[in-house]
Structure formats: structure tokens, C-alpha cells
Design goal:
heterodimer; A: alpha+beta; Sufe protein. Chain: A; three-stranded antiparallel sheet; 50% helix; B: alpha/beta; Aspartate Aminotransferase, domain 1; Aspartate Aminotransferase, domain 2; 2 domains; seven-stranded mixed sheet; four-stranded antiparallel sheet; 14 helices; 42% helix
Chain lengths: 141, 398
């Protein structure tokens, strides 16, 4: 992996963004990786304007926690359509890689694709986001 | 020794410390498989032409050599896909023949999933209870507890010859004696036994012994179930198909003799031939000296870890009853991250739960990093691993 992205991953692992418990959340989802015991819990609170505040808790390897922290930066303070766009971009990135003009966060996440055996680590927080998004969608407007 | 393994020509910088997962393959095994496909390929037990008869002869000679090596009769050597299938045959076919409601199966807490799950399936099917022999504080099987768990109700005792996570050689003779005393059947999962120990099934006096080719210098996809003839004869077939039948009519079928009864379909011919050559290779090795070699490397690593890395927790104490496996947990570095840093320096170690989740629970960890040395490793490889560990600490602790 490019040294620049490697240091960004390590930075997010050592100093995860939006890390912490959340009281009175609207949605929460906890995901486990049975092969290594890693787990991530993502919280979201939706305000009256439909904007989401996120935080997460978890224990795991650098890929798992850095991916969760990078995701936080992308989804925090977004509304539903913004989150859907981030989810779509993650799916596209996992399939095809980040585009050359993408922001650093996507390039760092792209760097994680070179560890296919550990894709479950990278996806853990994103699976929590999928669950939160699906639950949000089932709610009446 | 390294010169016998072509993988190190392809990857000269490779430090392979994951032999418990699979061993590297010696030139002789690779050549035998190559030779089979280049000049000996034909189906076995069918053709009346020379090429097929020759393939059958090489295939069956392989069985004879394996049988001689483990001191069994050739009809008692069933070719399987590996240890897992061998255990499944005993749990399913043997379960049908020998297990009755109210019986008990005794396993240990440190079994590989392949020596737990087949028994759980059988237990549910036959109304049988499973009990597990626990570990003592020094991570050895608790023989006193075993004595209480193995009772007149016990119908089957199955355990690993050597633990894949801890590398501990289990006191199988004592446990088999306890089982015999109450009339229970015994099975050994020899996946980690056969690469390190000279196995003599008569001397062990177990009823069944299972092993895989690939952990003992042979190919993947082939393994052996040894079973005492009378027991194998009493068991129904495991799978139906070609080769395992004596006569088939539209109304029903009768079964072939051993070992064919348990070998439905065209077998893994080149695998069996490769395994025969791997067994010849094992036979040519001074196994006791190699065990001492692996123990030496494991001890050296344990000692260096204790001296230099206070944040590393070592999960098993070296001993004479041990094959040199060093399983560790780092206070601050996830096993996956440690393995990834090792990989960036061309060092292969295993990280994860090692298909032994119940043992992980007993040890109070979710996953570990495991260093399992083999005959192609030396002290320099241990130094390389320690250097990678230093690098990982620098990366993750700074």
C-alpha cells in the first residue's frame, strides 16, 4: 500500500474519529467478524432536519477500525440521500477501486482492497451502516 | 532440508512458519504427481488395458506403503479427502452402527472444529450427549477430569493426537486405556500427529486414526481413515456410487469389500500416489531428531519473546510433550495486523481462531497469532520473525 495511505490508515486506527458511545440514538447496529472476534457497533441519531449524527465503538484490527473511522468522516452530518451516495461509492470502490480524482479517504479505503482475505474486516462497519440505512428506510417519513 | 522443497526456489526470501496449516511439498511428491499425469494417467479398478492396470497397481501400492508405515492392514486404510472427511465417516457411519440414545461421546476442549462438529451432528441424530475433557492451568489435558468423564455410558472417545493451536502432544495412550477400560471406542485426529510422530496404530491401540496428506508433505484433498477391520465391516457405507458396490440392481445393491466400501466414485488417484511418496519421505526422516529441532526453535522463540517482548502473552509452555508450536497474543497488536506486518517481510504465520473457537473461549482470547516451525526452518527464521515483531511494535505502539 502507498505509504501516504498507510499512514492515514494507521492514524485513523490510533485516533479513530467519532469514536464513542451514544445515548438516545435513533438507530444502532452491531456487527461481528466470527473469524477473529472483531466487532463494531455504529450509532446514528437523526435530527428533525433529517441529518444524521454518527459514532461508533469497537475492537478489532487496524483495517477494521480504520475503515470504520474513515466511514464516520464520510457519513457524519449527512442526510439520507448523502448517506446513500456514500454507500454507493463504497460499493463501486470495492468493485472497481477509487477514481483518480477521489478524496484521500476513498484512496485510503481503496488501499485496503489489496487484502481480499480481510475484506470482512474492512466491510464490518459498512455492514452496520447498511443495516441502519435499511431500518431508516422502513420508517414512515 | 530446504533444498528438497522447490517452493523456496520460487520464493528464496520466504520464511514459512505455518506448517501446522499445511506443510510445503518436497520435490519427490511434486514429481510423482507430475509423472502420473504425464505418463501413467488412467482410471483405476476399471480398465482391462495396460495403462489402467498400471495406474491401479501404483494407486494400490501407495495404500500398501501407507498401511505398512502405520502398521495397519491395507484393507484398513481408506482413502478420504482428508482428516475432516475421515472423522465424518466415523461420526456418520460409525454413529449409525454404534451410537444409541443415552450414550455419551467424550472429546476435549482443544479439538479442531472438524473433531467437534461431526460429533455434534451425530449426537443430535442419535440422542447422544457430548462431554469435553478440560485443560489444566498449564494447558495440558486434565487427566483426572478425563477419568471422571469417561464412564460406562461413554461409547466413543475422540481426540487430537497433537493440538493444532497449542502443539501439545496429548497423552493419548492414557486416554485410550481409560476408554478401553469402559468398553468405549477410540478415535485419534492425527492431522498434527502424522507430520511429527511415528504412528503405529497397533501400538496406540486406537480403533480409528485419521490424517491428512497435506500437513505431512503430501498433496491436499487426500487423507486416510484407518479403522479396525471388524469395526469398518460393521459400519454401513458412507456414500453410494461406483467402486463401493458389489452388485447393483434396480431393486437394491450390495456393498463391496473393504476398503472399496468406503471409497465411492473415482478416487483422488494422483493424491493417493503423492501421499504414498510423502509417506516414503516421512519414513526416510529421522522424526525424533526433527521433533527435537522443532522443539528447539519453539523454545528459542519462547525464550526470546519472554526476554524482549513483555507485551506478548505466550499461551503454551514448552515441554517434551510439544511439537514447537508457539501461539501468542500481543497486548496491543491484533493478530491480523501482526500477520500482515510479517507478510510484508515475506514471513508466513497464521492469525485467527485456528478452527478451534471453543479453545479460544477457554483461553479467554478471540484470536491468536501462531508460529509453527517445520524441518525447513532454522534459527535465522526465528530471528526474522522477531525482527518483524519489533517492526510491528514500532508501527503500532509509537
Amino acid at each position: 500500500m502507498n505509504e501516504e495511505w498507510k499512514s492515514l490508515i494507521l492514524d485513523h486506527y490510533k485516533h479513530p474519529r467519532h469514536y464513542g458511545d451514544m445515548k438516545d440514538f435513533t438507530f444502532a447496529s452491531e456487527q461481528h467478524n466470527r473469524t477473529c472476534g472483531d466487532h463494531v457497533k455504529v450509532f446514528a441519531t437523526i435530527d428533525d432536519q433529517g441529518t444524521a449524527t454518527f459514532s461508533f465503538l469497537g475492537a478489532g484490527c487496524s483495517l477494521c477500525l480504520a475503515s470504520a473511522s474513515l466511514m464516520m468522516e464520510l457519513v457524519h452530518s449527512q442526510n439520507k440521500s448523502g448517506i446513500e451516495a456514500v454507500r454507493q461509492e463504497f460499493q463501486n470502490m470495492m468493485k472497481k477501486g477509487a477514481s483518480p480524482d477521489a478524496i484521500d479517504t476513498w484512496k485510503a479505503l481503496d488501499g485496503l482492497r489489496q487484502y481480499p482475505v480481510r475484506s470482512r474486516c474492512v466491510k464490518l462497519a459498512w455492514q452496520a451502516l447498511d443495516e441502519i440505512y435499511a431500518e431508516w428506510n422502513t420508517q414512515k417519513p | 532440508m530446504k533444498a528438497l522443497f522447490p517452493i523456496f526456489n520460487s520464493h528464496p526470501a520466504l520464511v514459512y512458519l505455518d506448517s501446522n496449516a499445511t506443510s510445503q511439498k518436497p520435490q519427490a511428491v511434486i514429481e510423482a504427481i507430475d509423472q502420473y499425469y504425464r505418463s501413467e494417467n488412467a482410471n483405476v479398478h476399471r480398465g482391462v488395458y495396460q495403462l489402467s492396470e498400471n495406474a491401479t497397481r501404483i494407486f494400490e501400492e501407495s495404500r500398501l506403503r501407507i498401511a505398512a508405515y502405520i502398521n495397519a492392514e491395507s484393507v484398513e486404510v481408506i482413502f478420504t479427502r482428508g482428516t475432516t472427511e475421515a472423522i465424518n465417516i466415523v461420526a456418520q457411519s460409525g454413529g449409525q452402527a454404534f451410537l444409541r440414545p443415552g450414550d455419551e461421546i467424550v472429546l476435549t476442549v482443544c479439538e479442531h472444529h472438524s473433531n467437534i462438529v461431526p460429533w455434534q451432528i451425530a449426537a443430535e441424530r442419535h440422542g447422544v450427549t457430548i462431554k469435553y475433557i478440560p485443560l489444566t492451568a498449564d494447558r495440558r489435558l486434565d487427566l483426572e477430569a478425563a477419568r471422571e468423564l469417561i464412564t460406562a455410558k461413554t461409547r466413543m472417545v475422540s481426540l487430537g493426537h497433537v493440538s493444532n493451536v497449542l502443539g501439545v502432544i496429548h497423552p493419548v495412550r492414557e486416554i485410550i486405556a481409560m476408554a478401553k477400560a469402559v468398553g468405549a471406542l477410540t478415535m485419534l485426529d492425527g492431522a498434527q500427529g502424522i507430520p511429527h510422530l511415528k504412528v503405529d496404530v497397533k501400538e496406540l491401540d486406537c480403533d480409528f486414526y485419521a490424517f491428512s496428506g497435506h500437513k505431512a508433505f503430501g498433496p491436499t484433498g487426500i487423507g486416510v481413515l484407518y479403522g479396525k477391520k471388524a469395526l469398518l465391516n460393521a459400519m454401513p457405507p458412507y456414500q453410494g456410487g461406483g467402486d463401493m458396490i458389489e452388485k447393483v440392481t434396480l431393486q437394491g445393491s450390495t456393498w463391496n469389500e473393504l476398503p472399496s466400501k468406503f471409497e465411492a466414485g473415482t478416487p483422488h488417484i494422483e493424491g493417493a500416489i503423492g501421499l504414498g511418496v510423502a509417506i516414503d519421505f516421512l519414513k526416510s526422516l529421522p522424526l525424533e531428531k526433527l521433533l527435537a529441532h522443532d522443539q528447539h526453535l519453539g523454545r528459542l522463540l519462547t525464550q526470546k519473546l519472554r526476554e524482549e517482548f513483555p507485551r506478548v502473552k505466550i499461551l503454551v509452555e514448552p515441554g517434551e510433550d510439544w511439537v514447537g508450536t508457539v501461539t501468542i497474543v500481543h497486548e496491543n497488536i491484533h493478530p491480523h495486523d501482526l500477520a500482515a506486518v510479517c507478510d510484508s517481510d515475506n514471513i508466513a504465520i497464521r492469525a485467527g481462531h485456528h478452527c478451534a473457537q471453543p479453545l479460544m473461549e477457554v483461553l479467554g482470547v478471540t484470536s491468536t497469532a501462531r508460529v509453527s516451525p517445520g524441518l525447513y526452518n532454522d534459527e535465522a527464521d526465528i530471528e526474522r520473525f522477531l525482527a518483524a515483531l519489533r517492526k510491528a511494535e514500532k508501527l503500532f505502539l509509537s
